[in-house]
Design a protein that fits this description.
It comes from Massilia polaris. InterPro entries: 6-hairpin_glycosidase_sf (IPR008928), 6hp_glycosidase-like_sf (IPR012341), Ig-like_fold (IPR013783), Ig_E-set (IPR014756), MGH1-like_GH (IPR054491). The protein is an alpha+beta fold. It has 16 helices and 58 strands. The termini are far apart.
Amino acid sequence: MTNASRWILAALLACGCAMAAEGPVGKDLFIRGAFNGWGTDNAMLYKGKGVYEADILISPGNHAFKVGSKDWSAEWVIDPNASVKVATDTDYRMDTSAGPEDYLFVKTTAPYKFSVDASDPKAPMLRVTRLPNPPVAAIDPHKGHQQQAVVAYPTFDGKQETVRFSVQDAAARLRTYAQSTTMQLRDPGPQYAVYSESEGLPVARTGNLAFDALFALAAAEMKQDSVSEIKDGNYNGGAAIPCECFETGEKWHYVWTRDLSYAADLGLAMLDPARTRNSLDFKLSSLRTGVIKAPQVAGSADGLQVIQDTGSGGSWPVSTDRITWAFGAEEALKSLPAAERKPFAARALKALSNTIENDRIAAFDKAAGLYTGEQSFLDWRDQSYAAWIVNDLSSMASSKSLSTNVGHYKALTLAASLASEHGDDARARKYNGWARDLKKAINTRLWLPGAGMYSSLTAGHFDGAPMHKFDWLGQSLAIVTGIADDTKARSILARYPHGPMGAPVIYPQQQGMPVYHNRAMWPFVTAYGLKAAAMAGNASVADAAYDTLMRGAAVNLSNMENLEWLSGQPLLLDEANPSLIGPVINSRRQLWSVGAYLGMVVENVFGVSLDGDGMRVRPFITAKLRRETFGKADAISLQRLRLRGKQVDIRVELPPASPADGYYEVATVMLNGAPVSQQIRWAQLKAGNTITVTLGALRAGEQAIRRVSADPYAESPEVFGPREPAVAHITRGQDATVALGIGAGGNAAGTVYNIYRDGKLVAANLAAGTWRDVNAAPGSCYAVEAQFEKSGNRSHHSPPRCVDAGLHIPVADARVKSNVGVQGPNARFAAPHVKGWGMPGDRFTVDAVKVNSAGHYRVQVQYHNAANQINLGISGGVKWLAVKDAAGRTVAQGVVQLPHARVEKENTPLVYSTPLEAHLPAGTYRLELSDFYNMSYLDSNSTFSAAGGTEGPSNSFDIYGVRMMKAN
């Protein structure tokens, strides 16, 4: 919150009222929503007579919110089954059970009073009132500054925004800058920022005041994100946790694995390796005391491993991108002094090994050679998956994604390197072999030759096809890790679409979804695109990234979390469609955005990167960057960069500006006046060093880039994909022909449909209606994909439908045995079930399962897991399923996942686990379900407020039966 915001709120809240805990509810209450990162910044004060109030300054937007306690044990919404758009000065009766968030539409920044009358705690009443804006004094932050610069940025709607930069004393060793903008900011506050350069961090001196200032802004925001304690309402009772760490942003006060790891990799580890190490270490955890490891769980006795944060379906292994930790750890290991590096390297090897070994058991598909799990960072299911996935998270869990598999590749290669370093050659060979095989599988299974890019993700089980969906992070990571060869890298960079303001994180966009991952640019993803472009020599893509990163930081006065991709706005206020407004959450000084900007300057502009032996200097300065950003300079410098305790100044001597496009080769590198190679060893560095890089010839390089554009307010087929269709019906005739009904899914004319059988395309460019398959097999499963004829953009696949419904055995069947008794039907699910099964000692078996013909089978558990909401928690079911033959021999075994599932007051659907694949001869079999583990078994989650936290691990669910289906 800015100083001005604090001043306004202080005036609004200066009433001396008691906190909510003193009222009839008996606990603190908060207004928690998108405007505060769903945190606890906005406490409700008890005013007496059962009334609680909070006055909040809110910026424009369609803001989701709830009334909730610090630990979410109290969660109040207006309607537990549907979101409500709240009108001001209107009374709403609230439901005291969990449900979808409500919304407040705000057109202009203003203070609002949220009042809750809980005189009847079972039926509280909500009222929202707009308050008058208090006066704010006008301040000129540039007054008295000796040097100023003005930069104009064209906008998407034909206007322009103006950003002014100034410096108090341009000759000062450490400058103080002011920056102001005409653009309406995302969050309330003044239209300016004042910040200073800091001792111990590098400074830029380029002759371009705006460039130098924006680098100083990123460094200042890195210092703001450097904290001595962190907190999150879901941990430690909301109380602060001591940690010399990086917090995630202005609205996110905790350390999250993927945010930290990507931020560290992009730039933070080089500049503050000790704090990076502390933060990475915070994201490691051993098993809780008293937890008994199931025999199938791998790794050391303490179970030290990387934490998968709370999320989809109850966290790991629905999501497996915890292994992105390796990106940050690798950079920290390069940057730490030898004495500090040694213990961290040993701890990193142990944690990575335990993580890798258990991911191999729980989330590796041997047939595909790929790891399962949600896309990395794209963790809002309906933003980047099919709309139906929220009702079938098992299908998301069994899908494979490019970004996450690249993360597994990085974890394997780093672990192999550390194992070799520690003399464990056998482990190094194993992990190198796994990495080599994974690289091959990514290129075999996920590369789409017709698109010239990798598929972002496959469909889940019963389909498995790579989909024509693309994401910039996955494509870029494939390039920077070397998974993509030079030919593939050139193709990706030339073909991934860029809008007028830069590259979106996914393509095509999804209809009916607000801006967040969908329809958005994220600076950290842009920075990985820049790294990829520099590696492959694509000047056009690099220039687009430079423009996106510099413009975003300039007009927003901060390195924002994300921006709408066609307009570059921190909030696209669509009054005609309030439900599509976004980004729905957006934080200033977002950690990975800060790391992205710092890395852009240090690694790309000045070319500094580290390896185990030293540093490499290879600036990637394009003709456009030299011409437009450094046009008046003969040289630019990065001063007082500290690497392993030694100071380094980098000076880049520039050639004359050229009207042609491309990038400049490095002609010579000098260290303290002596010529050296671009690779400089640590032993060559002294206490103070000057590295002079002279740029030479302009190389054309690669300049292909795909540009697209559309109206930001319209769901244009040019940049959006169709809505996913459906298999409306499926029937098998006596002649074995399958008739398939294609449901259009609400798509209009100009849409055609493609049919996949068992993950293979079997028919294309069909109209909606009935299609017949004369080559069907008894175990065939089908999915349909929609495609816009003009743009070629495609939808997600429909839910798969299989010809054979399989064998279903309900828990009431006499063959079912469990130490937890079968209960009769209940009102909500109306079926016999085993309630709350899943304690470590629980057993569940099904005997005398008859298989009439040999073949490939899929075994699933029918269940419901209501331990938490589908987007939250650490209590996804993770169990071990074994199939044994009549002689008691295990013929198939493995982990099955039972993620959180939706709960509705009426007609809550039962769901199925991920399938266990089994090749079975004809015969009789026994199914045995036993314990594995989930993230609630880790000590780091012992203070978590919901299921799996303070009351002990949670790996339980209700079982309704099992299903066995024959596959082709």
